[in-house]
Amino acid sequence: MAQQLIAECPTLSACLELDHSSTVDILTVKLRNKFTNSRKRSLSPSVQERKAKRKASLIPTQVPGLPNYYPVVVDDLVTTERKLNMLRHGDVDRDQRAALVKETLPARRSEILGGPGKKPQNISSLKKRFPFMFGAEELWKEMELLSGQVGLREKFSEGLKTWLAGIMAQTECRREDAAETLLRLIDQEEVIIRDEEGAAYPHVQEAPEGEWSVLVERTEVARCSTLEEALLLVGVSFYVFNQKPRTKYKTLVWFLHNEVFGMRSDEIKPKGAALQNLLKCKPQE
Fold first, then answer.
1. DSSP letters of 250-265?
2. What pLDDT, in 10s, does the model give residues 96-110?
3. Angle at which helices 152-171 and 227-240 pack, to 10 degrees?
4. Contact predicate 159/236, CB 8 Å
């Protein structure tokens, strides 16, 4: 084939400034490499298998109990931006707002989750771009969109209250101290209730006038009137903002995920002592 190319293009040797023999040798090597690589890319079973696995790894998997964790993008970018701007300006009534929030969920998840060639946005950037998804009420709505269910605030609050009643019965603590007692029993009080602003993971801080701030990546995402709801929103924040549970606060995540939210998973395990303390206070079914 190299000889044929030279015969059809006699100026090749002159362009390469080589004699005929050297030109043949160079073309032979290049053609051999070209066809070898082409066969590897298109025919090799091992290469095809690796490509298939890589492609499959780029497709997100669903999160149990949250069918809309990775929603399918339907609108084009122009339509999405128009809807987001309508939400930011606030010139819509309550029903329109609810519809727009639901329709723009894929855009928010794309920014939060990232993807191939796209990094997830940090929380401060998300707050500027999607201010309408921040606040206690808004985070609950976002969680409901992810789950496809309504009434989660009431459902999860009732689940936590049932546990706190068991803790009160076993420890003789007062009602207003039950949430902090829970954190002490699972050795998470100093991890979740922070006085300084250095922690990036989801946690709470005391706010003025007896309120509680929920912070993620050092940014306030909601403010609550009780520590109980703040703890629930810490758990909700892991899903809404796609946070990864670190070792130091896995026990609280496990407790909320399994015992309060009812989203069973074996991926997170609590510490042995914390689990024993919880079992002693487990409410009767």
1. HHHHHIIIIIIS----
2. 999 999 999 999 999
3. 130
4. no
